[in-house]
Design brief:
This protein is of the alpha/beta class. Strands 1, 2, 3, 4, 5 and 6 form a six-stranded mixed β-sheet that branches. The radius of gyration is 16 Å and the shape is globular. The chain has helices spanning 13-24, 61-69, 88-102, 119-127, 130-133, 140-147, 153-166; strands at residues 2-7, 28-33, 47-55, 58-59, 74-81, 106-114. Helix 1 (13-24) crosses helix 7. It is built from seven helices and six strands; from the N terminus they run E-H-E-E-E-H-E-H-E-H-H-H-H.
Length: 167
């Protein structure tokens, strides 16, 4: 069994959790940033794990384009977002990613982990009303503050459980 982890990471959160997933995988494996996907022969892999940061409740643009290019692949995802994993937003993100991965492929499973918000986005939040940048969430500042310590051991544990369950 040969597994590829391909990840898109803007702030390093997704890269970090995908590197943890890579450590937990026991079989033959490879990990590459999405910018290097053209160097990989996807047909050599039995499983593809796509790492993505959440943008507008789904995969970021690079990951989304890559997922949409795939056909008949056995797919999994690892997504990172700032919101609580028990939030309605996280559930919506999981469902959206699951649908995206299922379109033309054999989607198996996915997992979400928390990640801190980029400094650029935090900066924007101080300059403009929140509902201009992000759909208004009454407790957005609390979510951002809470997410600053992520990804952490609890997120890595979720990743380890995901790998152990599926591989």
């Amino acid at each position: 069994m040969k597994t590829l982890i391909i990840y898109s990471s803007q702030t390093g959160n997704t890269k970090l959790v995908c590197e943890k997933a890579f450590e937990f995988l026991k079989d033959e494996k490879n990990i590459v940033p999405i910018e290097e996907i053209e160097t990989i022969n996807l047909d050599e892999y039995d499983n593809i794990i796509i790492g993505t940061w959440i943008d507008k409740a789904t995969a970021d643009a690079k990951a989304k384009k890559f997922i949409n290019s795939l056909v008949d692949k056995k797919l999994y995802f690892i997504g990172t977002l700032a919101a609580s994993l028990s939030s309605d937003h996280a559930k919506k993100c999981f469902n959206n990613l699951s649908k995206l991965c299922s379109k033309k492929n054999n989607f198996i499973d996915g997992v979400l982990a928390r990640g801190k918000v980029s400094d650029d986005l935090k900066e924007k939040f101080t300059k403009f009303p929140l509902n201009i940048i992000h759909k208004f969430v009454p407790n957005i500042k609390e979510i951002i503050d809470e997410a600053q310590s992520h990804p952490n051991d609890s997120d890595f544990s979720l990743i380890e459980d995901f790998i152990n369950k599926n591989f």
